[in-house]
Amino acid sequence: MAQDDEKTIDQLNEEADIAADYLEGLLDIADYDGDIEMGIRNNRPVVQIVADDNDDIKHLVGKNGEVVDALQQLSRLAVQQKTGERSHLIVDVDGFLKHKRQHLRDIALDAIDEVRETGEPVDLKPMNSFERKVVHDLVREEGLRSRSHGEEPNRHVTIYLKASAVDDDQHYDDEYDDEADETGDVEA
């Protein structure tokens, strides 16, 4: 299936079901109690793990969301193995992505305010591509422009005032591939 082709609701639900089964198996192996919730947001299957035990949740999130990232990649591979197609599945653990997105928005809004006050560009700390995308999207919404600079893992975003109408077409120049774009494009 071409990347531009949209999947049907049934295909997205199938991907969520496959991922949920896979994650339930992993939780059983790790002896973690957790509920699996499935849905579709922004034309993507979403699987969320919700647990009552805060210690289990902390382990499933990991430092800076590294475990969530790993669970998502493994789940995407499980879906691809069953369907033969690449998945844009999002895996979240107890709302981690919503909190992460809000934190990134706060950082970006502070930088946007600084750019507006000083007129000078502001460099943010290095971020992964999901984090950069959140920032680029917010900068565009706020009417400024941004650009990513540097090499991974030190790639960062610089926020600028919009210089002219020509800049309208160049909101950001980051490279997004669906493997690195997220730990989630989940609307909060």
UniProtKB/TrEMBL annotation:
What is the species listed in this Swiss-Prot or TrEMBL entry?
Bifidobacterium thermophilum
> Which InterPro entries does the entry link to?
KH_dom-like_a/b, KhpB, R3H_dom, R3H_dom_sf, R3H_KhpB
Q: What is this protein called?
A: R3H domain-containing protein
Q: Name one GO molecular function term.
A: RNA binding
Q: Name one Pfam family in it.
A: R3H
Acidic residues composition bias: residue spans = 166-188
Which superkingdom, per the lineage?
Bacteria
Q: Where is the R3H domain?
A: 98-163
Region of interest: Disordered: 164-188
